[in-house]
Design a protein that fits this description.
The complex is a heterotrimer of chains A (350), B (827) and C (189). Chain A has 350 residues and is mostly helical. Chain A contains 17 helices and two strands. Chain A has two domains: 164 residues, no CATH class; 149 residues, no CATH class. Chain A is globular. The relative contact order of chain A is 0.11. Chain B is 50% helix and 9% strand. In chain B, the strands form four sheets. Chain B has a six-stranded mixed sheet, sandwiched between helices. A four-stranded antiparallel sheet of chain B has the order 2-7-6-4, with no helix packed on it. The chains are: A mainly alpha (350), B alpha/beta (827), C mainly alpha (189).
């Protein structure tokens, strides 16, 4: 080994990108488990499939770009992207949906922009939006969250559905054969109800809901919240973005609810339905695409919260995190440019 | 709202942004007392580069005592260095520096005589009352004389800091020592708290701050205790000074960060703490101030922490400044090999030493020799994931990852817009980076690039300024010249209207021709002398003298050429006085004298015809006759003689233009003299001969030029001379050839010159001064070529070629000269 | 029909009004831009070396403003060329000079060989050479721009262009470039 001069500092924390990513994935595990519990084996199959495809795509792209494959692959960022795409896809969506989504995420969103650290958009969310727009039917056909007792689709059946190209309609029929209903997500249900002239409270009477929350979805969100708190505890993320997202969503929802309780969902329902928690803790906090300074991150998070609320309440899509995060990603460089922390010895005059 | 001082008295601390908590490893070295190591045999003291008026006070071979200053300077900023041991100045040369670059710097190398003879200026400690009686100037002077510098690392001269521009209200004594591993200040505070407080008293006496805060990190309880105790026994006014324990966080020991922690104020970017009325001094500096003031002892040793797992006996040691690092490593049983890293300073801000021969400096507080388990070789750099941890850790509130993007893309001006300048290079960002990016290295490169850019900008501005002013000057000069030319023309017109117009014109033409001849002749022998002077292996003094003589001779010749037309000299008569000249100096003096005499003679513009120039010739012959004394010196003398003769001839040839009966022979006698005096040394004979030949050739040329204006000129004697030269050479066959060739060259030139001369009419012929100048240069080059090639017989061919080339050039020049315009004369 | 006429008139009036407004604004808030020559000159290194083929930096800046190529300034190097390209809105071009000529150099007179001819002094565009006729000359290093112009006129070839040696003050922190000395253990200090 040749003696190489190194610049100071000569010591470093043992924290590595790869461990950070691994820990983040571990923290997402409770949420994935709960998702699996409610949506059946399909959820976990999608996650594993996505991770595998993500790793393979990453390796292929790296070798195409003539970059060292192993060092970059071992930073686990591709696996995390795969996981996030996997959980965002409906449990029984056909396999090619995940594959297209993941390949798009890794190849287009990440590597065409220069690889890890250079992408503007969050790969998982961009992929999700692409899928949602391209395959709306597959992407919105969520099976009804069932309790453990009703966990009806066996592993084999799930595999069959996912890999043998059963059409969504058939899935529905298949599902119908079991429990007689397919189900919209809670937010979707509310949106549909509101458009048919029902009030929120009437909407909440629907079977999708239970005690004012969406069945299953509330537990999934609780599980991700728990994972997020673990990440905070492990210092994998800082609280600023997640806190700002939740806070601003809560504030917006509260204002809306206070102004017009009949047409606006309550803040708690906002926080515990859809992708709120996983997005707030696992997706919005993606450091590559977020703002970097403390103030910038608060602003970034608040922007996401406001956008989510606006799109959920006034937009055409039931859930809005993917769009909100992508829009906020766009704003991140601006935020970073204009929200610079005051450097030591500089007056705050600006 | 409490005032700042009340807050300080209460011990209020402010939060500082960022910071990290690296593992400390301080117990490795702070368990034992400060010890001493065996002295090295050799010490290396870098000579300070600051201060324009800094000069070395010693020379190689001097014996120095311990503590004797090695440099002196009269500027206030000068910081002297001192001999750390008594001994011999073995060398003053460049040695690898104790710097991250390892670039060589000028150092005094002192061989230790192990006698420890102290400098007489040092004395036993004074009493406190004595010190109190000292004036501020005296105190400052002592601090300055002792070469006290900031011992925290930057080594800024303390006496400058102690004479601040503004009033100091708050003095902070920095005992924070936040870097991992380093414990030198810790041990110093534990063992020498009294001396440190004495130093603080001195600073108090000098500056009279309202408050003094001794800041110590709370991981050094013993040091805090000792300092508090010493402070309680001090003479400082009560309520004025206090010890403040500050929380352990890196980099709270940084000057700016410490000020922020203690006072909550920030030093404005680009300003110094003194602007806020705050002065920060290191505890080690306070100790050195005490030593300097009480004992008049210079800063020649300091406490150094030698630590790391590769050091067999880690601990703190008193080490003389200038000790080579490898000596220290040997003394402390260094366990690593030649590839183990050695870090100067702590692990956060220290640099790896490229060369272990480098000396210890005033600012070196730690030598860290980590093994691989402590500090693994740096991991490969991964892409930045913009996690923002660096921004959280940055104590300066910067955005390190933005700086990194721009620094990596070499967009340095953008990096500068993110306040790169305010980066203190503490290393927190690199420390926390999960991608192992050496951020600080990027910043340093960017900073140096920015510095270079600024420097270049300044340089460009300066260059532009100088270019513009030069243009202006040239313009003015041109105008002035035109003015002068006009006046001269008018005067000439007036003169022409006189009765003997024709006679004057003829005379002027002749003078010009002469001038041209002179310039040719002078340059050649001069460069001859120069060449032989440089090639000879005698002392440089001789060379210098020769050069001076030559320069003077040339000056004289050219002055003569610009002299008033009526100038005329008598024929120099050969008057050989065989005065035994013994020393070289005499010869040189003779040469100088001769040159001057000649100058005087030729300057005599309106001298009468009977002007005697013999003295010159006496000198010349002196020089000639004195050659046998030393062979080595003979050369020079001969060459000088040749030069002198050439000039004499010139002078002689000048005369014929005004005096028709002028005989040139006497000169030639001289030349033959020179030729005949050469046989002393074979090797040297050559040169003299060649010189003689060149000189003769020129003489001939000149003579032939004269003949064009003067019909009664005798040219034959010159030819006789040439044959003389030829006949005087029979010593060596090989050299004869050369001489002949030289003669041939000379003849060729002469012919050329002769042809040149007649081809001009009276007005144009001699007018352009510039052309002959060029000619002279070329000839001198040729002369050189002939000369330097001389030593090898095999190169005769080359000489011939050179001669041919020279001839071609000469011809070309002659043409150019004849075509050159009139007004060039102005130059 | 009438409505159309009204609409046309209205639109025409509006257009007139805004046109007048724009014209007024253009006059009123006219930015006295730094002429491109000045800007180009500010970018040039002011060595006045003439390597671009123009007698000084100002004439070259003027030529650039008139469409001369931007890659003719070896002392400025690639950085200057890129800045000029940006200023002029043209594509960067490789420099005409080789990399070797881009190393910063200063003139050095071998003083024992100097014959004091003053030719270099006359050649120096920034008056960085000190000396007088028949006296030895020397270069004021701080003022020398490394333009090379003094080398040619010297009749005795005693001027060298020496690369500027890095010192501790201007070192560029390129750690990889440092030759590391491996010292054997038995070596004496």
């Amino acid at each position: 080994m040749a003696f190489k001069l190194a610049s100071s500092p000569h010591i470093n924390t043992s924290v590595q990108t790869s461990t950070i990513m691994l820990k983040v994935m571990a923290c997402a595990l409770p949420g994935v488990m709960v998702q699996c519990y409610f949506f059946g084996w399909g959820a976990i199959i999608q996650v594993l499939l996505s991770i595998a495809v993500a790793m393979a795509t990453e390796a292929a792209v790296l070798s195409l770009r003539k970059r060292p494959v192993w060092p970059t692959l071992s930073d686990n960022s591709a696996a995390l992207t795969g996981l996030l795409v996997g959980v965002a896809i409906p449990a029984l969506a056909p396999w090619w949906v995940s594959v297209i989504g993941v390949v798009f995420a890794i190849l287009v969103v990440k590597h065409l922009y220069g690889g890890l650290g250079n992408n503007i958009f969050n790969p998982a969310m961009a992929a999700y939006v692409m899928l949602l727009i391209s395959f709306p039917l597959q992407m919105t056909t969520w099976v009804a969250p069932a309790g453990a007792a009703l966990n009806d689709v066996s592993l084999l059946a799930s595999l069959q559905i996912i890999f043998q190209g059963v059409s969504p309609a058939e899935v529905l029929a298949y599902r119908a054969g079991f429990d007689g209903m397919s189900m919209a997500t809670p937010l979707d249900a509310i949106k549909t109800s509101l458009s048919t002239g029902l009030t929120i409270n009437e909407a909440l009477e629907k079977p999708t809901f239970e005690n004012g929350f969406g069945i299953g979805w509330v537990w999934i969100n609780v599980a991700y919240l728990f994972g997020g708190l673990c990440m905070l505890k492990l210092k994998l993320i800082r609280w600023h973005i997640s806190g700002a997202v939740i806070f601003s969503l809560f504030v917006c929802a509260s204002i809306g609810y206070l102004l017009s309780p009949d047409t606006h969902t309550g803040p708690l329902l906002h926080l515990f339905s859809g992708a709120t928690m996983i997005a707030a803790f696992f997706i919005a906090t993606d450091p590559v695409t977020a703002a970097t300074s403390v103030k910038g991150r608060l602003l970034f998070g608040a922007l996401i919260g406001v956008l989510v609320y606006s799109i959920r309440s006034f937009g055409g899509y039931p859930d809005a995190f993917a769009f909100a995060i992508l829009l906020a990603n766009l704003c991140a460089p601006f935020i970073d440019y204009y929200v610079k922390p005051r450097a030591y010895g500089h007056r705050a005059s600006r | 709202m409490l005032t700042l001082f009340e807050q300080i008295d209460k011990g209020t601390l402010w939060r500082v942004a960022g910071g990290i908590h690296p593992p400390e490893f301080k117990t490795l070295s702070n368990q034992s007392n400060i010890a001493r190591l065996p002295l090295a045999d050799q010490y290396i003291i870098p000579v300070p580069q600051v201060g324009e008026s800094c000069t070395l006070a010693v020379a190689v071979g001097d014996m120095v005592t311990q503590g004797q200053p090695l440099t002196q300077g009269d500027s206030f900023r000068h910081l002297p260095v001192h001999a750390p041991v008594s001994g011999l100045i073995a060398a003053i040369e460049t040695r690898p520096s104790n710097h991250a670059s390892g670039l060589p710097v000028l150092c005094c190398i002192i061989d230790n005589d192990h006698q420890q003879r102290l400098c007489p200026a040092m004395h036993a400690p004074l009493s406190q009352d004595d010190v109190k009686a000292m004036s501020s100037d005296e105190l400052l002077n002592r601090v300055k004389r002792a070469g006290v510098a900031g011992l925290g690392g930057a080594a800024f001269p303390t006496h400058i800091k102690l004479k601040p521009v503004s009033d100091i209200e708050l003095l902070i004594i920095n005992g924070v020592e936040c870097e991992p591993y380093i414990t030198s200040d810790d041990r110093l505070m534990r063992e020498h708290s009294t001396e440190i407080v004495r130093g603080i008293e001195i600073i108090h006496q000098l500056l009279g701050p309202k408050r003094i805060v001794i800041a110590i990190e709370d991981n050094k309880p013993q040091a805090i205790e000792q300092m508090t105790d010493a402070l309680n026994h001090s003479d400082l006014p009560a309520q004025c000074a206090r010890v403040t324990a500050i929380p352990t966080v890196y980099p709270s020991g940084g000057e700016k960060q410490l000020i922020q922690i203690i006072t909550g104020q920030e030093v404005p970017s680009g300003a110094i703490p003194a602007n806020l009325g705050i002065l920060v001094q290191n505890v080690g500096t306070a100790f050195s101030i005490t030593q300097a003031v009480y004992c008049n002892a210079p800063l020649i040793e300091r406490v150094v922490t030698l630590t790391g797992h590769n050091v067999g006996r880690p601990g703190n040691y008193w080490v003389p400044i200038g000790t080579p690092v490898d000596h220290l490593l040997r003394c402390t049983h260094f366990k690593g090999d030649s590839e183990s890293p050695i870090i100067i300073g702590g692990p956060m801000m220290g640099y790896m030493l490229p060369n272990r021969h480098a000396p210890l400096l005033k600012g070196t507080n730690c030598i860290l020799a980590p093994d691989n388990s402590e500090m693994a070789p740096s991991a490969p750099e991964m892409p930045c994931i913009r996690c923002g941890e660096c921004a959280q850790a940055c104590p300066a509130g910067l955005l390190p990852q933005q700086l990194f993007w721009h620094a990596k893309a070499e967009e340095y001006d953008k990096a500068a817009s993110y306040n790169l300048r305010d980066c203190i290079e503490c290393g927190c960002c690199s420390y926390v980076c999960p991608s192992d990016i050496p951020l600080v290295e990027y910043y340093r490169v960017a900073k140096s690039a920015l510095r270079v850019e600024a420097e270049e900008k300044k340089q460009a501005e300066l260059a532009k300024q100088r270019f513009d002013s030069r243009m202006l000057r040239l313009e003015q000069e041109k105008r002035a010249r035109e003015e002068k030319a006009k006046q001269a023309a008018q005067k000439r017109k007036a003169a022409m209207s006189g009765t003997d117009k024709d006679a004057v014109a003829a005379a002027m033409a002749r003078i010009k021709a002469k001038k041209a001849a002179e310039t040719t002749t002078t340059a050649a022998p001069a460069s001859n002398a120069d060449r032989s002077a440089t090639t000879s292996n005698t002392a440089t003094q001789d060379k210098v003298a020769a050069a001076i003589a030559r320069a003077k001779a040339k000056k004289a010749a050219q002055q003569a050429s610009s002299a008033v037309p009526e100038s005329s000299c008598n024929a120099p008569e050969p008057d050989e006085v065989h005065a035994p000249v013994v020393s070289q100096q005499d010869k040189i003096a003779a040469a100088i004298a001769r040159a001057k005499a000649k100058k005087a003679a030729q300057q005599n513009p309106s001298s009468d015809e009977h002007q005697q120039v013999e003295s010159n010739d006496v000198d010349v012959s002196n020089a000639t006759s004195s050659t046998p004394i030393s062979e080595a010196e003979a050369k020079k003398a001969k060459i000088a003689a040749a030069v002198a003769k050439a000039k004499a001839k010139k002078a002689g040839q000048q005369n014929p233009s005004s005096d028709e009966h002028q005989q040139v022979e006497p000169n030639d006698v001289d030349v033959s003299n020179a030729a005949s005096s050469t046989p002393i040394s074979e090797a040297e004979a050559k040169k003299a001969k060649i010189a003689a030949a060149v000189a003769k050739a020129k003489a001939k040329k000149a003579a032939q030029q004269n003949s064009s204006s003067d019909e009664h000129q005798q040219v034959e004697p010159n030819d006789v001379d040439v044959s003389n030269a030829a006949s005087s050479t029979p010593i060596s066959e090989a050299e004869t050839k050369k001489a002949k060739i030289a003669a041939a060259v000379a003849k060729a030139k002469a012919k050329k010159a002769a042809q040149q001369a007649p081809s001009r009419n009276a007005d144009i012929a001699a007018v352009p001064l510039e052309a002959p100048l060029v000619h002279a240069d070329k000839t001198s080059q040729q002369g050189k070529a002939v000369d330097s090639d001389e030593l090898s017989a095999a190169e005769i061919k080359q000489q011939r070629i050179a001669a041919a080339v020279a001839k071609a050039k000469a011809k070309k020049l002659a043409k150019a000269a004849s075509a050159a315009p009139d007004d060039e004369l102005e130059d | 029909m009438f409505e159309i006429v009204i609409a046309i008139i209205l639109l025409g009036l509006l257009a007139l009004f805004f046109g007048a407004l724009l014209g007024f604004a253009a006059e009123k808030f006219k930015v006295e831009g730094n002429p491109v020559v000045e800007q180009a000159e500010a970018l040039l290194p002011q060595t006045q070396c003439g390597q671009c083929g123009y007698p000084g930096c100002r004439p070259y800046a003027e030529a650039i403003a008139n469409g001369e190529k931007i890659n003719k300034c070896p002392p400025g190097g690639t950085a200057t060329m890129e800045k000029l390209a940006e200023l002029m809105g043209v594509e960067p071009e490789p420099l005409t000079a080789t990399a070797e000529t881009q190393i910063k150099k200063v003139a050095y007179i071998r003083e024992e060989e100097c014959i004091g001819c003053t030719k270099c002094i006359q050649a120096c565009p920034v008056d960085a050479i000190l000396g007088t006729g028949k006296q030895m000359h020397t270069v004021i290093i701080d003022y020398c721009t490394g333009c090379d112009l003094c080398v040619e006129p010297c009749p005795v070839d005693c001027i060298d262009m020496l690369p500027v040696t890095p010192n501790i003050q201007n070192w560029n922190w390129k750690l990889n470039a440092i030759p590391v000395t491996i010292i054997s253990e038995e070596s004496k200090c």
